[in-house]
Design brief:
Length: 297
């Protein structure tokens, strides 16, 4: 079954961004930024400090805040949000040819390090969402300041999750994707978490029992930790393939559920889709696919 959304697994989420931070910690920390080439001005969301101010400074750390990547450059922070179609491409030796705009994955930013290595930020497609910030404090980035708790942080306990869902008349799928509620989970891993928890994506958050919350919390933490562990140490170019290979239901509509063998189903929306297993998650009942219903009228 071709949903038209098969590439949504490609969008970077917490495990991939954590792995990219690991790549930068291993390869960029300790190096000096020689220069930065900005090719897509629209991607640059700040002007003070200027991106040129990173030149001559040493990279001292790399971290993740939800889906944001944070490169600490001697106290200044190059913060990157890859959005739907952005990616970081590492080069042990940057190409000698001058940067040229365009191509299948057009360049937005190139960072040159003093040993000739560096990385590109690219963004495919026509809908541009890649965002680059240069700030003195990561909290100066509005998206980071508004983030909910990190699901892999010690303070993200079952009790904390119980407080999050209490009184919220929202479908649990949407709640898990809300970065102001829980940081780092997107479309793909929310599908995976709910499959592990054997929970309908349409279940209303406020109806979760104490046992439901415990099961969901365990599914969130184990699913993300497993994905982070699988991605650790991989080259940036291998991360998308690892993510795809590790997904059990997301992007697999029409395939057999790896747990029970039932057919993975899909619900389509305007610009995305979710996948689930009816036998594992909804008592064997298919969820209404509003887009398909309209097509059948």
């Amino acid at each position: 079954m071709d949903s038209g959304f098969a590439d949504t697994w490609d969008m970077p989420e917490l495990p991939e961004v954590e792995a990219l931070a690991g790549v930068l910690r291993e390869r960029a920390v300790g190096r000096v930024i020689a220069r930065t080439d900005v090719l897509a001005i629209s991607a640059l969301k700040t002007y003070d400090p200027p991106v040129t101010g990173l030149g001559g400074l040493t990279v001292t750390g790399a971290a993740r805040h939800g889906k944001f990547l944070d490169l600490d450059v001697a106290g200044l922070h190059l913060v990157i949000h890859l959005a739907r179609a952005g990616w970081l491409r590492w080069h042990d030796a940057l190409p000698a040819k001058p940067v040229r705009p365009g191509g299948k994955n057009p360049l937005a930013l190139r960072v040159h390090l003093d040993d000739g290595s560096g990385f590109d930020l690219t963004e495919a497609g026509t809908k541009k969402g890649l965002a680059v910030y240069v700030v003195r404090d990561p909290a100066d980035v509005p998206g980071i300041a508004a983030l909910g708790p990190d699901p892999l942080a010690p303070e993200f306990t079952p009790e904390a999750l119980a407080e999050i869902v209490a009184g919220r008349r929202t479908q649990i799928k949407g709640l898990l994707r809300d970065q102001k509620v829980v940081a780092g989970i997107g479309n793909a891993y929310s599908d995976e978490v709910l499959h592990v928890a054997r929970m309908s994506p349409f279940k209303i958050a406020s109806t979760l029992t104490g046992e439901d919350v415990a099961v969901l919390h365990r599914a969130i933490v184990t699913t993300l930790r497993d994905a982070v562990a699988r991605s650790a140490g991989l080259a940036a170019g291998d991360l998308k393939g690892e993510k795809r290979a590790g997904l059990r239901v997301h992007g697999r509509a029409g395939e057999a559920c790896p747990v029970c063998g039932d057919t993975v189903r899909e619900v389509s929306f305007a610009d995305s889709a979710l996948q689930y297993c009816p036998s594992c998650q909804t008592g064997g009942k298919p969820l209404a696919d509003r887009r398909m219903s309209r097509l059948l009228k």
